Amino acid sequence: MKKRAYTNGATKRLELPHKFVPGFIEQIDKRTVIYDLLNTSYCEVVGDMGGAEGMSHVKQSLAERYVFMEFWLRTLENKILSNPKKTVALVGRWVQAMNTFMGLSKTLGLERRAMPVVSLQSYVKSKKKKK
User: Fold this and answer.
1) From residue 70, how far is each of 61, 74, 75, 88 by CA, in Å?
2) In the chain, fewer beta carbons within 10 Å around the N or the C end?
3) CA distance 23 to 89
4) Which of 23, 15, 28 has its CA nearest to residue 60?
5) Per-residue CA distances from 34 to 6, 54, 66 (Å)
């Protein structure tokens, strides 16, 4: 597991963890391409589901796992392509990961949902209440 040390002593990951850990996206160094890919994918999944405000904790957790599995599948596919001799050993892991990915896809839903639309009057009222 590669980590980058900052001058303040904190460390951030430079790669995907080997096992799913809740909040793993925020543990990755935000300056890396991996973070950009994961964060973009997570935001797109949440957006397709109508936004985080309309999602339960369970759905948000499943969305995070979905993004992890999506990236894990890409990693396995790259390993298979870069080292054809290990294809047989990696195909079983890929099939298991794909089955998990498909299960998460079906649970989250394959269709897009519209974000709730707030009327201008409701928006103005909510802003006045916050002041």
Assistant:
1) 14, 6, 9, 21
2) C
3) 30
4) 23
5) 18, 27, 15
| Rg of the Cα atoms in the chain | 19
In the predicted structure, residue 7 carries a pLDDT above the cut 50: no
Find where tokens 């991996």 sit.
34
Q: How many CB atoms lie within 10 A of CB 19?
A: 8
Distances 82 to 52, 86, 89, 90, 92 between C-alpha atoms, Å: 37, 9, 14, 12, 17
Pick the closest to residue 15 from 77, 32, 7 (CA basis).
32
Q: What SS3 state is found at 11? A: strand
pTM: 0.74
H/E segment holding residue 100 = helix 87-108
Give the 3-state DSSP-derived string for 30-92, with helices as H, strands as E and coil as C: CCCHHHHHHHHHHHHHHHHCCCHHHCCHHHHHHHHHHHHHHHHHHHHHHHHHHCHHHHHHHHH
